[in-house]
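User: Please run a holo structure prediction.
Assistant: Happy to. Please share the sequence and the ligand.
User: Here you go; the ligand is iron/sulfur cluster.
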Amino acid sequence: METTQHIIARCKKLISQPEYRNEYLIRIKEKYLGIIGYFSNYIPEEIIAAAGFYPLRIIGCYEPSKPSPHSLYIPVCSFARDMYSAASSGGLSYLSQVVFPNSCDSMRVFAQMWEHAVNFPPACVLLHPINDNSNAIQYFAEVIERFAGKLHQDGGNLITQTRLKETIDTYNQTRRLLRRLYDIRKINDTFLAGSDAVALMTAGLIMARDEYNQILSQIVNQGPREIHKDRKLKRIMIMGPLMDNYGFLSKIEEFGGYIVYDNITNGSRYCDLDVEIEGNLYENIARRYLTSGPSPTLNSDKEISDQSFQALIDDLDLDGIIFINQKFCEPHVHKYLAEADILKQMNINVLMLEIEHGRVEVDERDMLRIESFLEIAGRS
Ligand code: SF4
């Protein structure tokens, strides 16, 4: 059986080594009608998989295959700029199509520029609502059903109820296993380092789903690995948009932090809630995607989100929170400002850092800030 260490090493290569990832995807591609790349947690993977395509979350390190004649400019966030540069130089040409969310301004600019400067693959925008009430769920269910019809036209596979139930079940399994992993790590700081857990989560957005469910179930059913034994660790939660730079997170661990939980796009917000399997499946998918771990681009009820945020903080018994934002990500700066007030009232130390997506080395200044933060975290 493959060891956990080996699995994590493979996950890290999938995220950080474009060549390794491309070879993996080219091998996989033959078994599917094509690979559909997408951005954001609002694109239902179940639908893409049920139509016979391979859903690939575009995340991680992408090297432009040749110098790009175009670029996106500030204030577009560093993630969108990085991905645009890879796409416009042909680095995503192995995809059959790309699906954009209707989320933030950076993604909107990116989607518009795709039409002008990236000729292949073709792209579309999935117009999900920005509210999560019953009318919005109904509307989104219709959008998803039309999207399913489009994929049927593109690939020829009709999405039957049976097929859709099967794929929902597969994705529910992933979400359940990931939530179990979070529950174990909340109470056991020797189970898996936070940087390894984020690498494992992120690789799942790239890896074939059956293979991923199998390695996840192997990991959650094993005993803890012996790590972090020599000193008392500070219990830290990380927050922000996507964070696929696991090397950055391992710096937090080197300075004595244990990343016990996260509230990031490629983390707990991805695996929150299952899709119900009874009733109208399109409505069930719409409900799950609009009501699970809300992103700040969604207009959700502030009182309810604040209450569940406070309950989470109470439950985690934290020494501090490190908020890691992608440079020029506006929605998450607003989220940070709103939640910093709550954290202040709860006497929780917070550190805010801004990073450039795709930049592997950790800035010397950030290292110093992390080190001093961990020194004082938990003292107040
Ligand atoms: S990092 Fe922020 S600004 Fe960039 S795509 Fe994600 S939500 Fe939008």
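The mean pLDDT is 91.
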